[in-house]
Design goal:
- The chain is of the alpha/beta class.
- Among the domains are: 60-208 and 242-247 and 285-444, Alpha/Beta hydrolase fold, catalytic domain (Rossmann fold, 3-Layer(aba) Sandwich), CATH 3.40.50; 596-730.
- 54% of the residues lie in helices and 10% in strands.
- Strand 5, helix 4 and strand 6 (194-197) form a beta-alpha-beta unit.
- The longest helix is centred in the first third of the chain and has 48 residues, at 3-50.
- It is globular, with a radius of gyration of 30 Å.
C-alpha cells in the first residue's frame, strides 16, 4: 500500500480522534462544573437552614402580623412586599394578596422572579401583600386556626387601604387555592376577586391514564400511611415526603433529565438551576392534625364541593362566595388537571342558571401545555397569563353574572393597538355553560365512583390504624428519633452529602474555577456530543416507559380492587353529588322564573341598556376587554358633564337582576324592552350606547346582522339608523 493511500485512509480517523479528544475534554470540564453546581446547591440548603429557611422571594418584605402571636397561633405570617427602587406604588389601587402553597416546600414561589405574580402586580402599581409561613408549625395547629389567621390578615390589608374602595384581589396558588376558596366562602366580605391558580377543588376528577396521582389512595388502602409517618415523627409530617411524591410522578425528570439538562448546559444554566433549587429543596413541616383534615376531607373525602363542617359548626359552602372567581388550569398539568380545577362548578351549581341566579361570576382560563410548576414559576406564563389576570382584575366585577372562559391571544402583527387597549395581548371573555365543563371530562366522570369506595375503605383503615398501630408508632417516637428520620430522608440526606460538609469536595471549587477560566467547549456538531444527546433521549424514553407501565398497572389494580366486582360490592359508591345538584338547580330555576314574571316589564333607561348589552353578549358569545374600557369612558363622560352618577352598588344590582331575567327567559326579556323605553329617542340612545360599548356601530347599518334584526323586531327602529359616538355620550336621558 502506498503512502498516499495510507494518508487517505487515516484522514477520517484523525478527524474522529480530534472529535473524541474535543468531546472528552469538554465532558470532563462539564463534569467538574456540574458537581460544583451541585455542591453549591447543598451549601445553599445549609445556609437556608441556618437562617431559619426564609421565603425565597426576590423582593424585600416586612412582616406585619406573625401568626404565632395570635390568640389561636399558627405558623403563618402576613408580609408587605417592598417595591424595587424606582417603582411607584399607588396606595389607592386595589391591593393584591398572594397566598403561597404549603405542599412540602417553603413560601416564595409566587415571587422568586421579577416576572411573577408579585412582580407584575407591583409593576401595575398595586400594593402587594404576601401570606407565607415558617418552617415548623405550632404544635397542634389546625386548618381552622390557619383560616382564622388568614381572615385576620385580610382584615389588616383592608384596614391599611381605606382609600382604595376595593377589597383585595386574592391569589391562591396550588394548595393555597382551596384554602382561599374556603375562606372566601366563610368570610365573603373580606375578598375581592379570587384567583385559584393550579388549585385542586374536585379531587377525584381526572382522565384515564393521564392523572395517576389520584390512584395513590387506593393503592395504599387510604390515608393511614401519612398518619403513620406523622406518628413516627412525633406528630409532625416532613414536607420532603410531599416533594418525593411530586418527583415520583416524573422519574425521568427526577432521576435523569433535570440533572442532564444542567450538565449539558452548565455554562449558562447554573443560576437558573440554583434559583429553582433554593425553593424546591426547602422542606417545611406540617402537623398530623392538618394532614388528616386535608387528606380525609379533601383528597380522599372530596367533601369541599358538598360542604365541610368546621369545628364551630359553620359549614363551608362554596355558593357563599360572592366575589368573582378565576380558575387558572392547564392541560399540561398532571397534578391538578383542568377537571380537578373545574368540576366543583358542576357539583356546586349544577347549571349555569344557578350561577346567574346567585349573581356570581366564574371565569376559567386554560393553558395548553404548561406543567404544574410552570403555572407558578414559568416566566412565559407570568408574562402572559399572570400579567393579564392583574390587568383585568377590576373588570371581573363588571361582568354580568355567569360562567365565562377567559381567552388570551397574541395580538396579530398587522393589528395596530387601539388607544384604549395597547396591550401585547387581546383578552375576551367567552360565555360558557356547565355542560362545557362536563365536556372536559372524557369519561363523563364514571371513574369517580371508584373513589367513593376508596373513601369508605380509607375511613375504616384509618380507624383500624388508630386503634391497633397508632399507639405503637407513637410509643416508639420521640424528638430525637423524629429529627433522625428527617435527617435521613433521601432528599434531605443528598443535600448534606453533596455540599461543603463533604471533605471529598474540598478541592472542587478550585478545580471548577480553573475550568471556567480555561473552558474548552465542544462544538455543537461534534459527533460524540450528538451521540450523548441521543443516549440521553433514550434514557428519558426508557424511564417514561417505566412510568407509563407503572401508572397503568396502578390504575388497573385500583379499578379491579375497588370496582363493582371487588370492594365496590361491599362498599357501594355513593350517588354522585352532580345528580343531586343538577336536580336542585332545575327546581330553583323554575321557582325563580315564577317569582320574577312581573319583573320583565319593570325598570327604565338604565335597566334597558343593561338588558340590551347582555342580549348582545349572548348573541356574540363573548365580550372584549375593550368594551369595559369604552363603558368606563362613557361613564366618565357622564360624570364630567354633570349628569347624575350611578353608584357601583346600584349598577351591580341592576346588572345582576337583568342578567337573571335574560338567563331565565331571554325572549320575554327582549320583548319587554319597548315598555322600558317608551320614547323613540330613548330607544335610539340605548341602542347607540350598547353599539358603542360592544364596538358594533357598523352592524347597525347591516340589515342582516343580529343586532339590526333585534332593533327592527323589538324596538321598531330603522336598522340603518346611526348615531356617532359623541352623540351617544352627550345625550341627556338618564
Amino acid at each position: 500500500m502506498t503512502a498516499t493511500s495510507k494518508s487517505r485512509v487515516s484522514a477520517p480517523q484523525i478527524e474522529l480522534m480530534k472529535a473524541w479528544s474535543e468531546y472528552l475534554v469538554d465532558s470532563v470540564e462539564r463534569s467538574a462544573l456540574f458537581w460544583d453546581v451541585m455542591r453549591k446547591r447543598g451549601n445553599i440548603f445549609l445556609e437556608n437552614v441556618a437562617k431559619g429557611e426564609p421565603p425565597v422571594l426576590i423582593f424585600g418584605y416586612d412582616v406585619l402580623i406573625d401568626g404565632r402571636t395570635l390568640d389561636r397561633p399558627c405558623n403563618y405570617a402576613l408580609m408587605q412586599i417592598r417595591p424595587p427602587e424606582g417603582l411607584a406604588i399607588d396606595p389607592t389601587k386595589r391591593p393584591v394578596v398572594v397566598v403561597d402553597p404549603r405542599a412540602g416546600q417553603g413560601p416564595g414561589v409566587g415571587g422568586f422572579k421579577l416576572d411573577s405574580e408579585i412582580g407584575f402586580a407591583l409593576r401595575a402599581g398595586h400594593p402587594v401583600y404576601f401570606v407565607g409561613f415558617y418552617p415548623e408549625p405550632v404544635p397542634g395547629q389546625t386548618l381552622a386556626d390557619i383560616g382564622l389567621a388568614e381572615s385576620r390578615f385580610l382584615e389588616e390589608v383592608i384596614r391599611r387601604h381605606p382609600g382604595a374602595g376595593n377589597k383585595p384581589f386574592v391569589i391562591g396558588n396550588c394548595q393555597a387555592g382551596w384554602a382561599v376558596a374556603a375562606l372566601a366562602a366563610v368570610r365573603p366580605e373580606l375578598t375581592g376577586p379570587v384567583a385559584l391558580v393550579g388549585a385542586p377543588l374536585s379531587y377525584w376528577a381526572g382522565a384515564d391514564s393521564q392523572n395517576p396521582m389520584r390512584y395513590n389512595g387506593g393503592i395504599f388502602g387510604g390515608t393511614w400511611p401519612g398518619n403513620l409517618l406523622a406518628d413516627l415523627s412525633g406528630g409532625i409530617i416532613d414536607g420532603a415526603w410531599f416533594v418525593q411524591n411530586f418527583e415520583n410522578l416524573n422519574p425521568a425528570n427526577a432521576l435523569w433529565e433535570k440533572s442532564y439538562d444542567l450538565y449539558s448546559r452548565v455554562d449558562t444554566d447554573e443560576q437558573r438551576f440554583l434559583d429553582f433549587e433554593r425553593w424546591w429543596g426547602g422542606y417545611y413541616l406540617m402537623t398530623k392534625e392538618e394532614l388528616r383534615e386535608i387528606s380525609d376531607n379533601l383528597f380522599a373525602g372530596n367533601r369541599l364541593a358538598e360542604g365541610i363542617k368546621l369545628p364551630d359548626g359553620q359549614k363551608i359552602d362554596l355558593k357563599n362566595i360572592t366575589s368573582p372567581v378565576v380558575v387558572f388550569a392547564s392541560w399540561g398539568d398532571n397534578i391538578t388537571p383542568p377537571q380537578q380545577a373545574l368540576n366543583w362548578i358542576v357539583d356546586v351549581y349544577g347549571h349555569e342558571d344557578m350561577i346567574v341566579a346567585l349573581g356570581h361570576v366564574i371565569v376559567y382560563l386554560l393553558a395548553e401545555d404548561v406543567g404544574h410548576l410552570s403555572i407558578f414559576v414559568g416566566g412565559r406564563v407570568a408574562r402572559k397569563e399572570h400579567r393579564e389576570l392583574i390587568n383585568v382584575m377590576d373588570m371581573l366585577e363588571e361582568l354580568p353574572p355567569g360562567l365565562y372562559e377567559m381567552v388570551i391571544e397574541q395580538r396579530p402583527m398587522h393589528d395596530v393597538p387601539q388607544d384604549l387597549d395597547r396591550d401585547t395581548y387581546t383578552v375576551r371573555f367567552e360565555t360558557r355553560t356547565v355542560d362545557d365543563i362536563r365536556a372536559l371530562n372524557p369519561d363523563r366522570r364514571t371513574e369517580e365512583s371508584l373513589f367513593s369506595t376508596v373513601k369508605q375503605v380509607s375511613e375504616i383503615n384509618g380507624q383500624l390504624y388508630e386503634w391497633l398501630c397508632g399507639p405503637v408508632a407513637r410509643a416508639m417516637s420521640n424528638e430525637a428519633t423524629a429529627r433522625l428520620l428527617r435527617l435521613l430522608h433521601p432528599l434531605r440526606a443528598r443535600q448534606y452529602l453533596i455540599s461543603g460538609l463533604n471533605p471529598s469536595f474540598a478541592l472542587l471549587p478550585l478545580v471548577a474555577e480553573q475550568v471556567r477560566q480555561h473552558r474548552h467547549p465542544a462544538s455543537e456538531d461534534n459527533d460524540f456530543l450528538q451521540l450523548e444527546h441521543a443516549i440521553s433521549k433514550q434514557i428519558v424514553g426508557a424511564l417514561n416507559f417505566y412510568r407509563d407501565l407503572r401508572d397503568s398497572c396502578a390504575e388497573q389494580m385500583v379499578k379491579f380492587a375497588y370496582g363493582p366486582t371487588g370492594l365496590g360490592a361491599l362498599f357501594p359508591p355513593e350517588p354522585p353529588l352532580e345528580v343531586k345538584t343538577e336536580k336542585s338547580a332545575e327546581e330553583q330555576s323554575k321557582a325563580k322564573l315564577a317569582a320574577l314574571r312581573g319583573e320583565f316589564e319593570r325598570g327604565g333607561f338604565l335597566e334597558a341598556v343593561v338588558r340590551i348589552l347582555i342580549a348582545v353578549i349572548k348573541m356574540r358569545g363573548a365580550i372584549d376587554r375593550r368594551s369595559f374600557l369604552i363603558a368606563q369612558e362613557i361613564s366618565e363622560h357622564r360624570s364630567g358633564s354633570g349628569q347624575p352618577a350611578i353608584s357601583e352598588a346600584d349598577l351591580h344590582s341592576v346588572v345582576a337582576e337583568q342578567a337573571l331575567l335574560m338567563q331565565l327567559d331571554p325572549e320575554a326579556a327582549v320583548k319587554a324592552l319597548p315598555r322600558l323605553l317608551p320614547s323613540r329617542t330613548d330607544r335610539e340612545r340605548a341602542v347607540a350606547i350598547v353599539a358603542r360599548i360592544m364596538m358594533l356601530e357598523p352592524a347597525l347599518s347591516d340589515p342582516d346582522s343580529p343586532m339590526a334584526k333585534m332593533v327592527t323586531k323589538f324596538l321598531d327602529l330603522d336598522p340603518k339608523w346611526y348615531v356617532t359616538p359623541s352623540q351617544v355620550v352627550q345625550g341627556g336621558t338618564s
